[in-house]
Amino acid sequence: MIRLSTALAIAAAIGCAPTAAPRPEATAQHPLTVKPRADTPTRLLLRLSERRLYLVHHDAKTPVESFPIAVGKKGWETPVGRFHVEEMVVHPEFLKLDPAMPTRVLKRIPPGPDNPLGQRWIGFAHGEGWTVGIHGTPRPELLGQAVSHGCIRMRNEDVVRIYDRVQLGTAVTVEP
Question: Percent of the chain, pLDDT > 90?
């Protein structure tokens, strides 16, 4: 499992968009090239209309656990479809980048109680210039609402629990 110390979060015009690159000493492949794994019985099921994340083993009708979430707001909807865990970061650093010049850092928030990404980041969908994932939040009062730039927000203790139960390649299904 890759444990990266830094995640870049592009908060302005590119959605939730945390991206991360392995440190030079990392030996695993880049997280965004990870292939889905069929050998893991655990998978994640997100039901956006219910604002719930379900931890599922073999039978989707009887999830093992369920957690409240916040989802993407209008114009920044969380993508629906079948994905897999591509990236995992413990105590991510949040970097707000300039939307006009994405290499310019406007603000850096180190790991800690005020970090918008909370204690864990689990990236599961990406495209050109954006990444969506599951992460903690310092504002759990927003759970149950559509408030993010596409990401799934959870209580920090819940995202740590999920993080410890998944691995790179774990299936993630997002339903409307």
Answer: 60
Marked catalytic residue, from 84, 91, 126, 135 = 135
In a domain, 3, yes or no: no
Highest-confidence segment of 2-6, 52-56, 123-127: 52-56
Q: Give the distance, in angstroms, between the CA of residue 58 and the centroid of all CA atoms in the same chain.
A: 23
Pairwise CA distance, residues 60 & 63, whole Å: 6
Active site residue 126: no
CA gap 106, 129 in Å, rounded: 17
Q: Which residue has the tokens 């410890």?
A: 164
Sign of CA dihedral 97, 3, 151, 116: negative
Catalytic residue at 84?
A: no
Total tally of structural domains belonging to the chain: 1
Tokens of 21: 């690159």
pTM metric for this prediction: 0.79
In a domain, 2, yes or no: no
